[in-house]
Amino acid sequence: MQGKAVVPATRRRRPSSPDGLVLLLLAVPGIAWFSVFAYGPMAGLVVAFKDFNVRDGIFGSPWNGFANFRYFLTSGDAVTIIVNTLFLNALFLSASLLAGLILALMLNEIRGSLYRRFMQSTIFFPYFVSPIVISIMLQVILSGVGGSGGALNNLLSVIDLPQLSWYTEPGAWPWILTIVKVWQLGGYTSVIFLAAITAISEEVYEAAAIDGASRARMALSITTPLLLPTLGVLLVLGVGRIFFGDFATIYAIVQDNGILFPTTDVIDTYVFRSLRTIGDFGTTAAIGLFQSVVGFFFVTAAVLVQRRFHKESSIL
Amino acid sequence: MSTTGYNESLLDHEAREADKPAARRRARRRPEPFTVASHIVVTLFGLFCLIPLWMIIAGSFTDETVLARQGYSLFPNPFSLAAYELLFSGQSLLNGYVASLFITLVGTILSVSSTASLAWVIARRLPWISRPLTVFAYVPMLFHGGLVPLYLLVTQVLSLSNSWFAVILPILLAPFLVFITVSFFRQLPEEILDAARIDGAGELRIFFQIVLPLSKPILAVLGLFYAVTYWNEWFMALLFVSDPDKYPLQLILQNLIANVTNATSLPGATAAQAAAPVYQLRFAMTVLTVGPILLAYPFAQRFFVKGITLGATKG
Fold it and tell me: Domain A67-311 sits in which CATH superfamily?
């Protein structure tokens, strides 16, 4: 390797085969991981078509055709969790994108560079808070010590509004979870938008200022339209993931509180619960496969749309 | 060979960001309503982000009986260290830290090294290798096997139950980060690599002695993203770790929520201390779990911003 002859520059992208093989060595850990942990489970999806039992194992268990799918789709839960997954994700996506966009426009107005950087760091921080910790914060706000009171109820009592026992009110939870997602992702999304704002030419604003445009006018008529491509990409990516619930946050918050399931149970939490409590591997795998297949169409459609409109930001 | 020129170009957009307000300041004389409103809204949102965290911190220093009687307050009065004393006197906090540190350190090292080396092979555009590898790493972003096959794989096939590697391995590689790294590698100045090749450096030598040192910014981004993911990971632990002595911090916390009345999982909460301060302990535990992130955040924050920016514009 070391004493090799000079390689002409034109061949730099095409090294001789021994070099290629050496390079392939570097890829071995990655290839091994993808084979076992990404493609292995795909092979394991045969469980969805089996009457699985641990004794016979994944490949030894008897086949049962589409029985697992029929069982899931005819149970009353299927519609609820599919609707919840789509509805909650749509809420989360639109709310966090909107919050991120507004925050970015407003952060952009803050000139004091130290204050701006401090605020940016502050609103970005919730992104790094783990779901479990979020869940504990939410309990402080909504239920308080011993399940009574809570910061929000204390606030409500001050302004003479009725207090609620939040953890037994399923109707409120789509909105509570949306607020949590805005808290968690608003700052993160605004960082992405701010990066796009930096790329906007200064001259546009100077021209607008000469024409007497106010700052609000500039934000609305210059910055926002120029951010639409970024918004589009984020929207498309989000829609691509719309069939996959945000398992970690929802499960950490709702746990096994059955009262809240009608409005908060999504496919992922349902799968996890069936696996843990019922241990029905066949049906659970069938739901997972169903989710993966439908999700695949969403993601693929999203990727195609993104490539169509925003070629430079696509991966393949 | 100097690397400063390259690193400067990475900081370019930060520099531009700093220039821009100055230019705009000239264009404006007195604060406009929108600017004033912006300051107010952003500040309020900042408070909205911080207050829940502050309530937890304040709660962890407030005596349980006061918490129960007066509810939460923003300032602990009277100040109480009881929960921390209890936590530090027991074994499970230490066990939790050992588990979380092991998972985070070992996991981050494995993740960053395998991500960077795989990304380099893809970035080299080798005939017959790079393109198939791209597809190989991309397909799992579109389709995955789901929870049940993964569960069976880890517990039945690999027999990793109760091992910290059961937490690390399933989330070892993030395809998205692999592709961000690929696009970073492809921007490395080709001339430096050519010069090394002319001097007779082999592929491995080029990767380890030239590419990696030039790629410190992206390695920092990778390391921080993976480290936060591992530190915050609780779902894999919930699935695969059932031995309480091996619980990482997040799982200890998860257990504290799941069993509100079950104080037995807390250190020092023996039968003699039936009235263990459950809530105060929970808050203290939360503070100790978020603590490392909170301490590292001011220094690490700009790398995260850079990582997202890379992902948003190039990913």
Answer: MetI-like (1.10.3720.10)
How many pairs of residues across A and B have Cβ atoms under 8 Å apart? 342
B64 and chain A in contact, CB less than 8 A: yes
Q: Where are the domains of chain A?
A: 67-311
Contact yes or no for B301 and A44 at CB 8 A: no
B241 located within any domain: yes
Which of A285, A275, A292, A291 lies closest to A58, judged by CA? A285
Give the domain range for residue B182.
91-258
Q: Which residues of A touch B312 (CB under 8 A)?
A: 192, 195-196, 230, 313
Q: How far away is chain B from the Cα of A76, in angstroms, using its nearest Cα? A: 21
CATH of the domain at B254: 1.10.3720.10
Determine, for residues A41 and B149 on separate chains, whether the beta-carbon distance falls below 8 Å: yes
Alpha-carbon distance A269 to A246, whole Å? 9
Would you write out chain B's pLDDT as a tens digit for each of its 315 residues?
333 334 434 444 444 444 555 555 544 567 788 999 999 999 999 999 999 999 889 888 888 777 777 767 777 777 888 888 888 888 888 999 999 999 999 999 999 999 999 999 999 888 888 889 999 998 888 888 888 889 989 988 899 989 999 999 999 999 889 988 998 898 888 888 888 888 888 888 899 999 999 998 889 889 988 999 999 998 899 889 999 899 999 999 888 776 654 444 444 444 434 456 778 888 899 999 999 998 888 888 877 777 777 665 543
- Is B259 an interface residue toward A (CB < 8 Å)? no
Within 8 A of B146 by CB-CB distance, chain A residues are 41, 45, 271, 285, 288-289, 291-292
Q: Count how many domains chain B has.
A: 1
Tell me which of B69, B115, B147 to substitute to probe the interface with A (most A C-beta atoms closer than 10 Å): B147
Cα separation of B181 and B215, whole Å?
A: 9
Alpha helices in chain B (DSSP H): 4-10, 12-26, 33-60, 64-70, 82-89, 92-123, 130-142, 147-152, 165-168, 175-185, 190-198, 203-206, 212-214, 216-232, 235-240, 249-258, 278-313
